[in-house]
């Protein structure tokens, strides 16, 4: 299955506690909690481009599976890391955050980010 496509956030769990834990300011948390972000994924072989648009904020990351890449986080930090693919899952570690993006079926992506005991889960549907 290909990750390629455009997805809109449908639901999320633990947004506020997770964003507080990673140091996002309260005013940005309040502004962002009800925005239905759009994720666009372009997959070509092992090369990926992921564009996430949340209101006026656009985050673009490009990477190749198994190779070191500079990925930008929600807080604006650039982290050198390696994205691994395990079947229909993309896995990456960013500053203590374990992130797994799973293509559950042809139309649903679930992204789970874990930091300590906080699990932030985002479910997005293909547009």
Q: What would your notes on this structure say?
A:
Belongs to the calycin superfamily. Fatty-acid binding protein (FABP) family. The chain has 127 residues and is mainly beta. The chain has a single domain (5-126), classed as Lipocalin (Beta Barrel), CATH 2.40.128. It contains 2 helices and 11 strands, in the order βααββββββββββ. The protein has helices at residues 15-21, 26-32, and strands at residues 5-13, 38-44, 47-54, 57-64, 68-72, 78-82, 84-86, 89-94, 97-105, 108-115, 118-126. The strands form 2 sheets. It has a 9-stranded antiparallel sheet. A hairpin with a 2-residue loop joins β10 and β11. It is globular. The model has no long low-confidence stretch (mean pLDDT 94).
Question: What layout of secondary structure does this protein have?
Answer:
Blueprint: E1 5-13, H1 15-21, H2 26-32, E2 38-44, E3 47-54, E4 57-64, E5 68-72, E6 78-82, E7 84-86, E8 89-94, E9 97-105, E10 108-115, E11 118-126
Antiparallel strand pairs: 1-2, 1-11, 2-3, 3-4, 5-6, 7-8, 8-9, 9-10, 10-11
């Amino acid at each position: 299955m290909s990750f390629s496509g455009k997805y809109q956030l449908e639901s999320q769990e633990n947004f506020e506690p997770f964003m507080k834990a990673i140091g996002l300011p309260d005013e940005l948390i309040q502004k962002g909690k009800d925005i239905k972000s759009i994720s666009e994924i372009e997959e070509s072989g092992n090369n990926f481009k992921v564009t996430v648009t949340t209101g006026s904020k656009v985050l673009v990351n490009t990477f190749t599976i198994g190779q070191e890449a500079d990925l930008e986080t929600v807080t604006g930090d650039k982290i050198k890391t390696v994205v691994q693919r395990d079947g229909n899952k993309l896995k990456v570690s960013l500053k203590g955050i374990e992130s797994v993006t799973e293509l559950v079926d042809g139309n649903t992506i679930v992204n789970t980010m874990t930091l300590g005991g906080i699990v932030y889960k985002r479910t997005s549907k293909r547009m």
